[in-house]
Amino acid sequence: MRPGQGDRGAVTAEAAMALPALVLVLAAGLWAISVVAAQLACVDAARAGARAAARGEPLEAVRAAALKAAPPQANASVEQQGDLFKVRVSAVVRPNWAAVMPSITVSATAFSPGESTHGGAPGGPPAPPVGEERGAATPDTGPAAEAPLTAGPQSNAGR
After folding, report:
1. Do the beta carbons of residue 53 and residue 87 sit within 8 Å?
2. Residue 106 is part of which domain span?
3. Judging by beta carbons within 10 Å of its beta carbon (0-12, 13-18, 19+), is residue 64 exposed, middle or buried?
4. Is residue 146 part of a domain?
5. Number of domains, the chain
6. Is the model's pTM score more than 0.90?
């Protein structure tokens, strides 16, 4: 018998043993990526719902805005606590390619004050007229009237 002849086929046997483990690690990695993607989608959906609530849309429209951005088969709930809106989006993530992988529930919650707290509310500051921005100084008051006006381009080169 020649030296090394007893090891013939050992690489093939080792590869046959390692390949299922490699496939399992790859499947777990893909599963983790899909769970993270669903979590991010829930965060985006909850924020979309909170923005709709901040605009003063009805609760059903807020829920619809959240579900529009949510992953498939997601649930959304909207609660109003005084002037604060709470939008919660949750989804169960199941891999359709592997029955042995567990399902995981991901969720996100976003809060937003209602539009009535931004101005025009009883006892609050008046809402700005249409076409004007909040914090814009008027010609006779505020920091813009006190600052001297300069002409020409300004440079930050010497700063």
Report:
1. yes
2. 16-117
3. middle
4. no
5. 1
6. no
